[in-house]
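Reviewers asked in the last cycle whether our approach scales beyond single polypeptides. To address this, we selected a multi-component target totalling 857 residues and predicted its structure end to end. The input consisted of the following lines:
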Amino acid sequence: MRSIDQGTIPLDDASVRHLDLCLGCRACETTCPSGVRYGTLIEGARHFIESRHRRSWPERVQRWLVNRTFPNPAVMRIFGWSVRCMTRFGVHRLARAGWVPAPLRRLLRYLPDPKAPFRSVRLPERTAPRGEVRHRVGLLAGCVMQSLFGTTHTNTVRLLTEYGCEVRAPEGAGCCGALLLHNGDRERGLELARRTIAAFDSPELDAVLTNAAGCGAAMREYGEHFKEDPALRPAAERVAAKVRDVAEFVHGLPDVEPRRRMNVKVAYHDACHLLNGQGVHAEPRRLLKDIPGVEWVDLHEAEVCCGSAGSYNLTEPELAGRLAARKARNVTATGAEILVTGNPGCILQIQAALRDQGSSIRVVHTADFLAEAYTNGKAARD
Amino acid sequence: MITERLLRALRDILGGDGVVSHATELSVYDCDGYTLEKSTPEVVVLPRSTEEVAAVLKLLKHEGVPFVPRGTGTGLSGGCLPLGAPVMVSLTRMNRILELDPANRRAVVESGVVNAWVSRAAKPHGLHYVPDPSSQMACSIGGNVAENSGGPHTLKYGVTTNHVLGVTLVLPDGEVVRLGGMTEDTPGYDLLGVTVGSEGTFGIVTEAILKLYPRPQGYKTLLAVFDSVAGGSAAVAGIVASGIVPAALEMLDRLILQAVEDAFHFGFPREAGAVLIVELDGLEAGLERAAGRIREVCESNGATEIRVARDDGERDALWKCRKRAFGALGRLAPNFCCQDGVVPPTRLPEIMERIADIGEAYDLRIGNVFHAGDGNIHPILLYDERDREQTERVVAAGREILRECVALGGSLTGEHGIGVEKVALMPLIFTPDDMSVMEQVRSVFDPEDRCNPNKIFPSAEQHVEVRSPRRQAAM
Ligand SMILES: Cc1cc2nc3c(=O)[nH]c(=O)nc-3n(C[C@H](O)[C@H](O)[C@H](O)COP(=O)(O)OP(=O)(O)OC[C@H]3O[C@@H](n4cnc5c(N)ncnc54)[C@H](O)[C@@H]3O)c2cc1C
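The resulting structure, written as structure tokens, was:
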């Protein structure tokens, strides 16, 4: 990056190619003894690239699509709806049978089984807890989560309300901007971030929660993103300081306790932006291991990226596919029945790879699993 | 020098993805861990087998093109810097462990295998590969063989040459020879012995047969804290003189200690002048007594505190701090030059004092983290490569430190090799006759001077300065 900056190597297809190949998983930050903030560097580099480098037409179209659809809840809702229709009509089966052209087939691989289709949800602006209000938390409804992982949202709310949390999901929060920031579209990313900050900047909230790893990681950095904007900086820092992952927050509540036996063999995969981006490692593991009946199995290379990496699996399918296959092999080797992980992208990616390898292991969001084990009522099921 | 035709021929042997020739992509090969000098190869080839290496070298012989072998580029003397060698042969794709024979305690590996992988593979059998350079997470066995590398634990068990039973060497003309063998000693001249440590000037090592050792029954790892480097060095001299041979005896000074503490939060005393890490290993029975002796020696040399690792976890944490100390240097400065000299262990107090003086005289910050037990010092000169004048002071100060080592009865390099870095200093310890004999040995393997040319010998350096303006101080 320095060489490009200093002009020792040109900003050409070759150098951009190598920077594109970076997953942005930030595992290097976790290991770096010198504390280099590579995530910030690569984000800066991507911004630099997108503003000066002319990409080929197919690349531009692809990136435009990714950057316009995902961060837009309204578009995502339509997208979610059409995906559900496709699942119902069995398009995925056609795809798996090889009836669709390759690029489309790659996308369709991520479709779930009709038995567990995607669901969208509109979270209420405010959900009251069971019993008295002991905590007030914000929950980012987000873009992908809301339109495809509605069930997980419902379960997250149920889990939180069980333990006295009033859950606020302000409609205005929209998309947090993470995907655009990670992809180098800084201006529009910050625009979205501004709205999210405004929606959550309230002294009443004890915490601002997410159940999507990339969002949480980006939101924790709001303060830095706006450090040159004196008007917004204080609010950005306030919100950033309150950002927590759902499992991390629940783990910190004084009275959490498993309410149900779960007789199942479980492994856990670290989402990069939870582990490296937010330092969440022990909390979900502890919550899972505490559940009676859960047989815990260690996943080899649990901390290695599955290749989903935001929209990496769409822009770099070849390398993403290799990582996914390796992850799926490791998962299968554990003999687990359920793989738990805290990020929607990882779920789609690993589930698709497991399916390709003929495995019936289910990949479940941490919040879904915890809602089942840690609440009295019945958790929502797909 | 590289023609389209040659590129095509290389691609025919290795496939398109085995040949790197795009300028941008070549730029990552412009230096190793010695970043003071840089030079970019014209093409990098990535063979996957001994046969491919042999085919490439035959082709280069036919075309009369010089080349340079490269492992993983962690070298600290510029050994794989291409100087008048347009082709770089990178061995990173030859990364398979071919055979693990626990019963005979041997492993056969390709030369691109990373050092730490060998011990990892041997671990289930209770064995390990002893030489453990601090770079062991990254450096290759081929590079270790070329540099005859050491590590903290080679104090007691010997360096790479003591742990390699044989190698497969592709000579510069493409002929494949096997030196040494599966058994401990082979009759005839010890050609393996001269090959280990030849700094990549004899040909390309593609496979190596390594000895594995059982893990010791017990360890005792002590951390001794001193107010000053002088106290620590005196203790080292005392331990060596006491007749106990620790498995490892390492020193870290305050500058390094603080960076390491910031990185790993081990709980080092930040204000200490220096610490020693002393590790004893062997049968549990004798460890306690030896540890008692070490403790006495340290205390009589002014140790203010002595801690003992309570369990494997603490021991691992301590070694992690030591071995990854280099990684934490980014906290101190953008660049560093790790010098490598040796003195007799009893002269450590003097050399450490001289290093401090030299740092002051050249207005440079110098940290120290090194294999104290065998007198192998590693002064680390901090700098910023964007500051040209400071960069030049680093080169001059480094040379002066090495001159001091030689003056104290030591030598120019403990384990990192001569490479390009120390070429000019060779006359300090060798006469022209010595060097001419060495060059004759070399010419037996590489008569045309095409394999890693312009290294080790000063005659080479003169060549380079006249002939190769490409070589430039780091930008
Ligand atoms: C952080 C750090 C810590 C270090 N600690 C130690 C230490 O504790 N002890 C120590 O001894 N060294 C240490 N080193 C130096 C370095 O790691 C060793 O010299 C190592 O053996 C180099 O291996 P490499 O694969 O990186 O070789 P390279 O740097 O790629 O090459 C080194 C030399 O070997 C030649 N070469 C490489 N592979 C082959 C091959 N297959 N056939 C023929 N020639 C070949 C090259 O031409 C070159 O001359 C350290 C380096 C770093 C960066």
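Chain B has 15 helices and 22 strands. We regard this as preliminary and will revisit it once experimental data from Aim 1 are available.
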